[in-house]
């Protein structure tokens, strides 16, 4: 199943190019397992979720660690019917038959409890879109239940859910939401905004 | 039908707060026709597409006009089944029965030809998501045909389509894509990135 993201990093600083170039070194450990293409709007990362989410996490954490207000914006997708499959996307997330919702819920919580803590605080606002028909509302509500128990749930907003907490836990939570809800072979997307060091009061 | 967007403006400058505060005056003509709520991640705009898209256009143009590299990111949504209707969202876009695809295509092109030209160049990358079943792939392909004839089509990318041109024409194109494709009462969303003044070569 084809999976990946179009990502953009926005440091709110005159030296935004410097912050971005410096943060890119955080992608080094992942480069062999991702296809990466950049233009003036976004960088394409093609690869399995278990590589994609840690790569986005480490890129964002590196930029956030400078103390500059910065945002990672990403359009994350799996199973788009218009995209050809790619061997680099082979993922352990979607092997075997789909487990019952309650079991996936429990597995997602366990994965979040085992997430690395990076000691970088951030917020993540996102929308999960499950395309196609069938039981997709059950899946959405199952995902929301998981998010509320994940330890990072901050609030529901119109069109989106807002999480906050340690960046390592946040990206683990996002990976679980993306992989464990919606049909294993279905078309699922996330519209993500991760933000750190905002001067606005929360 | 409930419609609106969660939007964020990212000026890549030390004085990002000043650029944002100054650009916000561009929303003044629209404030009475929108519900607006802001937190540390995004600003919610609730209102009909014919107000929403010009408001986003003018906010973004005002920031872009400073010459600073800036990005407007938006999660735009209509017809989400989890959102209650709101009188402020009453739109002329969705009155009457849905016309045949060819007719909507022609109407969309006519609307784009009549769009105001702002003399601010920008690029817009977006994904259109049509939730639910039925003829949604016909609608997506119909929308892509329209985009290719809109005069702003730059290229297809994985997960997204990239447009470029005058900001007035771009936002008119986005409004038409959002309103004229997908079921009139359906759940349709756009994940938008509009960018201006990037130092990266295109």
- What's the architecture of chain A, going by CATH? 2-Layer Sandwich
Q: What is the domain total for the residues of chain A?
A: 1
Helix content of chain A: 25-40%
Q: What CATH first level of chain A would be assigned?
A: Alpha Beta
Helix-strand topology string of chain A = EHEEHEHEHEEHE
Q: What spatial order of strands do you see in the largest sheet of chain A?
A: 2-3-1-4-8-5-7-6
Strand content of chain A: 25-35%
Number of strands of chain A: 8
- Compute the number of helices of chain A: 5
Query: Which blocks of ≥5 consecutive residues of chain A have pLDDT under 50?
Result: none
Termini separation of chain A: 38 Å
Characterise this structure.
2 copies of one chain form a homodimer. With 202 residues, chain A is of the alpha+beta class. Chain A has a single domain (3-196), classed as 2-Layer Sandwich (Alpha-Beta Plaits). Chain A has 5 helices and 8 strands. Chain A has helices at residues 16-23, 49-64, 101-113, 136-149, 167-180, and strands at 3-11, 35-38, 43-46, 70-78, 121-130, 153-157, 160-166, 188-196. An 8-stranded antiparallel sheet of chain A has the order 2-3-1-4-8-5-7-6. At the A-B interface, strand 1, strand 4, strand 5 and strand 8 of A face strand 1, strand 4, strand 5 and strand 8 of B.
In short:
By secondary structure, chain A is α+β, with helices and mostly antiparallel strands.
Helix and strand layout, with pairings?
The structure is a homodimer of 202-residue chains.
Chain A: E1 3-11, H1 16-23, E2 35-38, E3 43-46, H2 49-64, E4 70-78, H3 101-113, E5 121-130, H4 136-149, E6 153-157, E7 160-166, H5 167-180, E8 188-196
Antiparallel strand pairs in A: 1-3, 1-4, 2-3, 4-8, 5-7, 5-8, 6-7
Helix pairs in contact in A: 1-2, 2-5, 3-4, 3-5
Protein name (chains A, B): Thiamin/hydroxymethyl pyrimidine-binding YkoF putative domain-containing protein
InterPro entries (chains A, B): HMP/thiamine-bd (IPR015835), MTH1187/YkoF-like (IPR029756), Thiamin/HMP-bd_put_YkoF (IPR011522)
Domain Thiamin/hydroxymethyl pyrimidine-binding YkoF putative (chains A, B): 4-83, 124-200
